[in-house]
Amino acid sequence: MRMRAVGNGRTLPGRLAKVPRRGRPRLVGAQCTAGYPYIKPAFDLGHEEVMEIQLEYLRKNNEPYVDHGIEVLYRFADIDPFDIRARYFGVKMDLGQFERFRRMFHTQQYRALVNHVDARPLSTLQLAETRVKKRFLVEGFRKGEKGVFEWTLTQKVGGLKDGYWYVESCICDEIEFEPTRGSA
After folding, report:
1. Is 28 inside any structural domain?
2. Of all helices (H) and strands (E), which one includes residue 143?
3. How far apart are CA 52 and CA 116, in angstroms?
4. Containing domain of residue 46, as a range?
5. What Rg do the C-alpha atoms of the chain give, in angstroms?
6. DSSP state of 77
7. What is the CATH number of the domain that holds 112?
8. CA-to-CA distance for 160 and 53, rounded, in angstroms?
9. 20-55: string of b/e by CB count within 10 Å (b at 16+)?
């Protein structure tokens, strides 16, 4: 593992590069992800593994850093950064920038996915050899928050990404929020 110290340009192998900032050490570069694998689409991942990976990283969204789980989802998203008409969330949106994608998961519609407690598969529908729809019931970390989400996964055919599974869309079918009330 190699780290680079900010300011002097030296490389410090095997040591954490720390730069004082208002009296606190600051992590630099890839230090915050040390010990965590870089998750991205791969040829040996089937659609089941892709869904397991995405749900697991959404469950622990803020490890090793804030919104890391959403970042993993973005890597698996079948979004053309130059297409302003992506339908990943069911409506036409410009999702070419990660920040726009990230903001959607913090809306009331999708927030049950972030740091969720439980995700149970409801159904799987094989639309074609290279296309699958999966529905999950997700219980959010807020008490009484539940949602049904539908993922459409497609497998690339031809080109550099031949055989890789990507998520074409993640659509919120139904969301419930019933906060528990304290006794009066």
Report:
1. no
2. none
3. 13
4. 41-176
5. 19
6. B
7. 3.10.450.50
8. 22
9. eeeeeeebbeeeeeeeeeebebeeebebeebbebbb
